[in-house]
Write a structure and sequence with these properties.
Layout: H1 15-26, E1 37-44, H2 48-60, E2 64-69, E3 74-80, H3 84-88, E4 93-98, E5 101-104, E6 108-109, H4 115-119, E7 127-128, H5 131-135, E8 149-155, E9 169-172, E10 174-175, E11 179-180, H6 188-197, E12 204-205, E13 214-220, E14 227-229, H7 230-242, E15 247-250, E16 252-253, H8 259-270, E17 274-278, E18 296-302, E19 318-323, E20 327-330, E21 336-343, E22 346-348, E23 351-352, E24 363-369, E25 384-388, H9 396-405, E26 410-414, E27 434-436, H10 439-446, E28 452-460, E29 462-466, H11 468-483, H12 491-501, H13 521-531
Parallel strand pairs: 7-12, 8-13, 8-15, 9-13, 15-17, 17-18, 18-19, 24-25, 25-26, 26-27
Antiparallel strand pairs: 1-3, 1-4, 2-3, 5-14, 5-16, 6-29, 10-11, 20-29, 21-22, 21-28, 23-27, 24-28
Helix pairs in contact: 6-11, 7-8, 11-13, 12-13
Length: about 525
């Protein structure tokens, strides 16, 4: 395997990162950047005096230090564009590179969630084991009396008051930019943590380690923006090491490699730490970082039938696979949605569109073909509008609002494309319940125009997402569960055991789609028990 450098200007046509990039572009520019400045990472040559002189020069040039990376002899700064050339010429400077962006993994609502996950929604009186926990053999590994392995989750924070989390050992970082690790405004990090460590407590869901078998350390790098920087990620990884973590989970990535970031993960590997990252949701063969560094384990996504998720990145850095399609897990309190759509005796897989309200009770109304929803149509009054839209849902909010202004009581969006995902960039918000279905389901509903359909959207603490973001924590959870039995092993040795014991999928041996195959906890445990840590 090898590492290839790519450029930030590379066109992102793939679904996952294209959506992320478009969303980021719509966000306001950070206060530390404008058209005349650039954020870069500066690496210093050995020699404290020279480095001191270089820092003095940076201050003279108007540079502002943003991130210190002493372990990598580097620093991230923002400075005027015109000052770059002079900085590069300083005798203490070994290199200057753009501080690459790292996007939060897109937790994509599933087009058609597993039927079991739709019908077995957790409640305060019922606990549910997601299919992925069984697929990775989590429950087949015996209990251990050894100290729990610490897993560091670099993400968007964790709802520490979630019923499935209370009782776990949890620590984390405060960051001046993102706030406390337990301040959450996004479900991504909590969903990841639930897959790793949701407790078996007769409520909610169960994670790979459901009996307080891991401890968690949380580093929050995402807040209101969906992206951060490679320097911030390297700093977060260093904080994981300082906290005593043995496994680092990163459900994030970007298209550009960073020499300093790569050096940070190489250093962590040498320190015995296992770094695991999502391969990316672009459905392309391009590399995503940090997953595609040799010192990081790149995880692809498969569904409950062991088929590769259509969105999952594929290349020669993909190392292993795990469940990442229609994964049920925890989300911050009240942010999950149990969405039901029924027409006659048929239940349809549906997701609430962005900003859809919940329903106090199921809303029953006749189906109406609202076409593309671009104009007001009084004939839609009292009905559920079927709205045909594009695969990315551009302008969907306005179309749903047109349905509401026409007197419609609900909206059902679909695209003739097999896959589509609700737009989160449309600022027009309607007050009627609105859901999203697949293209084939939309066509089936069109055939039932005039007949009644029922929409129900209720809030809960769980949700079903798809993405390699959901696959990576399965591997992190398995690594920690197995490693607890063999604390004498290094991260490299645990990694090798996971690779060599994986359930082979697709082409025989390692392949670019699913790597060595589906991660298997019991098989890895048995291998280590029989062969030891190995080389």
């Amino acid at each position: 395997m090898h590492t290839r450098m790519t450029r930030l200007t590379q066109t992102l046509t793939a679904v996952g990162l294209a959506v992320a990039a478009a969303s980021a572009a719509a966000q306001p520019a950070p206060a530390d950047r404008d058209a005349d400045t650039v954020r870069v990472v500066v690496s210093f040559k050995p020699g404290t005096r020279l480095a001191h002189d270089a820092r003095a020069l940076m201050a003279t040039l108007g540079g502002q230090v943003k991130v210190e990376l002493p372990a990598q002899d580097a620093v991230a700064i923002v400075l005027p564009q015109h000052a770059l050339a002079r900085l590069r010429q300083h005798a203490a400077v070994a290199g200057v590179e753009e501080d690459a962006k790292r996007y939060r993994g897109m937790a994509m609502p599933a087009r058609a969630p597993a039927q079991a996950d739709r019908d077995e929604v957790p409640t305060p009186k019922r606990e549910y084991t997601p299919y992925g926990i069984k697929k990775v053999q989590a429950r087949l590994v015996p209990a251990s009396t050894n100290a729990p392995i610490k897993v560091c989750i670099i993400d968007s924070g964790l709802d520490r008051e979630h019923p499935d989390m209370i009782g776990n050992e949890m620590t984390g970082e405060y960051d001046r930019g993102t706030g406390n690790w337990y301040d959450v405004d996004d479900p991504h990090g909590t969903h990841v943590a639930g897959t790793i460590a949701a407790l078996k407590n007769d409520v909610g869901v169960v994670g790979v380690n459901g009996a307080r078998e891991v401890s968690l350390h949380i580093v929050r790098v995402f807040s209101d923006l969906i992206w951060t920087y490679s320097s911030t990620l390297a700093d977060a990884a260093n904080k994981c090491k300082a906290a005593g973590a043995k496994v680092i989970n990163m459900s994030l990535g970007g298209p550009d490699a960073s020499e300093v970031e790569q050096r940070a993960f190489d250093d962590l590997e040498q320190a015995g730490i296992l770094s695991i990252a999502s391969a990316g949701n672009g459905a392309l063969s391009d590399y995503r970082y940090p997953a595609s560094y040799n010192s990081v384990m790149s995880v692809a996504a498969v569904d409950q039938n062991n088929n590769r998720g259509w969105f999952s990145q594929y290349n020669d850095q993909v190392e292993i696979a795990a469940p990442g399609v229609a994964v049920l897990s925890d989300v911050p309190h009240g942010t999950g949605r149990d969405t039901r759509l029924r027409q006659g005796d048929t239940k349809y897989a549906a997701r609430p569109t962005a900003d859809s309200p919940t329903t106090a009770k199921p809303v029953k109304a006749a189906l109406y073909d609202f076409d593309e929803g671009k104009v007001i149509d009084p004939a839609a009054a009292g009905k559920h509008c079927l709205i045909r839209t594009n695969p990315f849902g551009f302008g969907l909010g306005k179309r749903i609002k047109n349905c509401e202004d026409s007197g419609g009581v609900g909206a059902i969006a679909y695209s003739l494309n097999q896959e589509r995902h609700p737009s989160e960039r449309d600022k027009v918000v309607a007050t009627i319940p609105s859901v999203d279905v697949s293209g084939p389901d939309g066509v089936a509903l069109l055939a039932a125009v005039g007949q009644n359909a029922i929409i129900s959207i209720t809030a809960n603490d769980y949700d079903t997402f798809s993405g390699t973001s959901m696959a990576a924590p399965h591997v992190s959870g398995v690594a920690a569960r197995v490693w607890r039995h063999f604390p004498q092993c290094t991260g490299k040795q645990i990694r090798n055991a996971l690779d060599q014991s994986a359930l082979d999928l697709d082409a025989p041996g390692r392949d670019n789609l699913t790597g060595f195959g589906l991660v298997q906890a019991r098989a890895a445990y048995d291998r280590l028990l029989a062969q030891g840590c190995g080389a």
